[in-house]
Amino acid sequence: MTFHDIYLLSPEMSMAGLAAVLILVDLVFSKKSALTAIAFVGLAIPLTLSIVLWVYLNDQAVTQMDADFGTETVAFVVDKFSLFFKFLIVAIVALVVLASSEYADKFQRFRAEYFALILFSASGMMLLASTVELISIYVSLELTSLPLAALAAFLRDDKSAESGLKFLILSAISSAVLLYGMVLIYGFTGTTVLADIATQLGAIDLSADEAFGANVLLFGVVLVIAGFGFKIASVPFQMWAPDVYEGAPTPITAFLSVASKAAGFAVILRVFYVAFDSEMLSRDWAEVFAVLAILSMSFGNLVAILQTNIKRMLAYSTVAHAGYLMVGLSAVAARVPEAIAGPSGVLFYVSGYAATNLAAFAAIIAISNRVGSDRIDAFAGMSRRAPFLAGVLGFALVSLIGIPPTVGFMAKIYIFGAAVNANLEWLALAGVINSVISAYYYLRVIKVMYLQAPEDESHVSSGGMPLKIAIFVAMAGTGFFGIYPTPLINAARTAIGVLIS
User: Fold this and answer.
1) Relative to the CA of 437, which of 17, 40, 345, 458 has its CA 20 to 30 Å away?
2) 168-206: per-residue pLDDT in tens?
3) What is the DSSP string of 51-88?
4) What is the pTM of this model?
């Protein structure tokens, strides 16, 4: 490994290094409260290193930098696509750390391990955005998933233990499915490098009957979709989400809902837009994603209506939003210039969804810590007991519906517009109908907070300063990019241009 390789890998290494520092500090010093500040301030290092890499790319006028780690195979690249997700993941981790400042008192003795596991998982997510080789992708996925399984069980009660065990077992099954799909692709193409896979497929007529193994290749692609489908909680691979979301610590539920989804779509975009970009193959997988999009939107929204626990409701909500995001993935098959709005819409949507969901969960953390329950009925009369928190949660839920002037509205307009430009009007219509259906259960929570009488008239505080900062920043992002989305849209277009140019 050369210094250049270390330089390219420096954001991920600094993130993992920060996790190790937290554990060492915990061994030496007894004051646990300082760990939150160290974790938050330490995130400036991977952020700064990512900025340095972005500036270097601009100065050198190159689209990407490769790292081979002493081998002949390029397994890791740094480009504006990967850096976009690194910025996003660092921002998500920062808000989750702030939102965890008081919640982590529930496991005070293990505060360092809690933050360290979040950082180790985040380093895996950052790797996922940069890996361009199947084995490296698999290793990065495992680095992402294993800490999350431990975090889901961190409360160590019955529900939390079930949550961690279910996530671990189902994650292992999905990883096996994904690995089997990768093996079939390797067997057909003779390589694990994404760009080389594309080259091999480009030299084969997949429509010809004599193309030996073409059906095996398609089966491998289906297995890869299934493996990634678990990571983004799409139907029919969403069975883990409700129980894990309910049993996990609420900040980890928030982390799972946004960071895991961002990393999942980063690697999906990388794999399918680089390795499987041939016209015939892209048409096939785009149709698969279109079907999964409708199933995920419909199932997630309809089942969410039945939920009485707000974390389970948002679990099914995230299934539905995975469907909205897959609308953007499906737009590539049209092969028209406007199709860039599909994948760039995925980046814009996942960023807006991160801000919105973090605002919602930060408010839920503050309320649940005081009322001691995640049941929707426990939020009754919260507009009188905690006007600020009720306003933030209501604003976030309005954004999840897709009502202006929120980033959720702009994201849905952008991604559904991409589907229309790609001649997928029926898919855009399905998205609009499902957005209307989702209004029922989102507005039900607002109704409970504003129209239902509270059981207790006592005031509910907004928590300490770190939690207030997390709430304010997430809410500000939800509102600002709803009114002025241009900077985020431009950044998304610049990032995705690396893959589809």
Assistant:
1) 345
2) 898 889 899 999 999 998 888 888 888 888 888 877 766
3) HHHHHHHHHHT-SEEEE-TTSSS--EEEEHHHHHHHHH
4) 0.93
